[in-house]
Design brief:
FAD-dependent oxidoreductase, 9-stranded mixed sheet, 501 residues, alpha+beta, 6-stranded mixed sheet, Rieske Iron-sulfur Protein, 2Fe-2S
Length: 501
């Protein structure tokens, strides 16, 4: 069985989303929201619903970024997190984290029901399960945290699925959905309520002042009272977010299986992580199998991660066909809690939402409500918990030290790596770091035999990017920037493309 040739994600059904123009003029508005995922759409929708003038601007199409490569679970069960939150933040803030995410689920469920959004919204239990003694111990500690915080959950010892699980912990009545129709509804409402949406409009710089402004890469200016940066990585330079976030890649395959799946959304408590859930697409049922997480740019040959998921699916459920495969790229904060709120102290007209770990669907609603409240000058009970200026000595200090050491290691490793491969050795659809006249370069030979050669030095801080064979991209192992095979920026913090040679 062969994997599909190129990564795809069926969430990005652009036919379901209307097309919007590029910004081709200076613009004055009340609020500017940057980012075309569900966070930006939710924030702009809530502002427009209050009768405020808002402009949503995105560098790609709507859902063109991280939201387009999701597993689309809406849940407050974010793996094993609550025992850890109690240890680092205390019970009160851990409870707030649960309440914020449970409220986000309730908001999305009510919105879909009230407006009849045909987004395949299905209520299902979310389940963490253990297959080894190590996972069992973690599961018991998490269940104790549920009980302390009053989280409704159920601990049991058997599963009906063929996982060989020794224990499981469920959170009842969570949900899954299809984000494209949901996003289309939000976009249509923003416009109906007087807001404006601009696609393929890349933000360049933020300018502070009596009124805020942002300039686009095309040279246009958007002037407003405040700006919310809801893109994958903040587009502005301040705040040292590149040092406070690290990027992780993980992988998903969508399979057709003969197994009669009974429902539920599952994730392992121990390594290697495996995420399993069902989806209905095109009138048939598919299983989504995810896992194989690693720091972006630091994994083994990325095709191997897809192959590993395929073997797990074959051994566990049986595989008739692999319909889709894609990779996800998530940003993780130093304490695993997202950064949502004022981007930095002393700048009340610049807000940010980033660092969602792997739980962007639920967090999009948390962030949309919190950002909108702050921009409107309203109180929000979760502002302190998610505030980007927070600092917890434990775990922030340890994580920062570890990340700094990791960046230094990969910076030096990339510079000293000796490469013997020659571009002429590359076959069709093959890429690699190569040495040309003593210089480290990146080469990819496409399906037509054309050779694309770039300077592998990341334009953010000079680390050497690595070839990602699964996605045909150049990925930076230091801060997670990603570039297309011919050097164009896909994800920051890098802003400039790789040099073409």
């Amino acid at each position: 069985m062969q994997l599909p040739e190129y990564p795809e994600s069926y969430w990005r059904r652009t036919a379901e989303l209307p097309a919007f123009p590029r910004l081709t003029r200076d613009l004055e508005t009340e609020f500017a929201v940057v980012g075309g995922g569900l966070t930006g759409l939710t924030t702009a929708y809530l502002l427009a619903k209050e009768g405020r003038r808002v402009a949503l601007l995105t560098a790609d199409r709507l859902l063109g970024g991280t939201t387009g490569y999701t597993t689309a679970k809406i849940t407050a069960q974010h793996d094993l997190i609550y025992d850890e939150l109690i240890a680092h933040f205390g019970e009160d803030k851990a409870r707030l984290y649960y309440e914020a995410n449970a409220g986000a689920l309730a908001f999305m469920r009510a919105l879909a029901a009230e407006h009849g959004i045909a987004c395949d919204f299905v209520d299902e239990d979310a389940v963490v399960y253990a297959t080894r003694e190590e996972g069992l111990h973690k599961l018991d500690k998490e269940y104790a945290a549920y009980q302390k915080l009053g989280i409704p959950g159920e601990r049991y010892d058997t599963l009906t699925l063929p996982f060989g699980a020794t224990a499981a912990l469920s959170m009842k009545r969570q949900a899954r959905f299809h984000p494209a129709p949901y996003a289309a509804f939000l976009a249509s409402e923003i416009v109906r309520l007087g807001g404006e949406i601009f696609e393929e409009t890349t933000m360049d710089k933020f300018h502070d002042g009596e009124r805020a402004s942002v300039t686009t890469k095309d040279g246009y200016t958007v002037t407003c009272d405040s700006v919310a940066a809801c893109s994958h990585f903040p587009f502005f330079d301040n705040g040292f977010y590149f040092a406070r976030l690290h990027a992780e890649s993980s992988y998903v395959i969508a399979i057709k299986s003969p197994y009669d799946y009974p429902g539920g959304m599952y994730i392992t408590a121990n390594e290697p992580k495996r995420s399993i859930r069902e989806v209905t697409y095109g009138g048939e049922k598919l299983l989504l199998i995810g896992g194989e997480s690693h720091k972006t740019g630091q994994g083994e040959c990325t095709i191997a991660h897809y192959e590993t998921l395929k073997r797990f699916a074959e051994d566990t459920f049986g595989v008739e066909e692999i319909r889709y495969r894609w990779s996800t790229h998530d940003l993780v904060s130093t304490d695993k809690v997202p950064y949502i709120g004022y981007a930095r102290e002393g700048t009340p007209n610049l807000l940010v939402a980033t660092g969602y770990r792997k739980w962007g669907m639920t967090t999009s609603a948390v962030a949309g409500r919190l950002l909108a409240d702050l921009m409107l000058g309203w109180d929000n009970p979760y502002a302190e918990l998610f505030g980007p200026s927070r600092f917890q000595a434990d775990p922030d200090m340890g994580t920062l030290a570890k990340e700094t050491g990791d960046v230094a290691y990969h910076f030096v490793k990339g510079k000293l790596e000796w490469l013997k491969k020659d571009p002429d050795e590359l076959g069709l659809d093959e890429g690699a770091a190569v040495r040309i006249h003593g210089r480290r370069c990146g080469a990819y030979r496409d399906h037509e035999g054309k050779l694309h050669v770039v300077d592998t030095t990341c334009t953010h801080m000079g680390c050497e990017t690595e070839w990602n064979a699964g996605d045909r991209t150049w990925d930076c192992p230091c801060h997670g920037s990603r570039f297309t095979f011919d050097g164009e920026v896909m994800h920051g913090p890098a802003k400039k493309p790789l040099g073409r040679l």
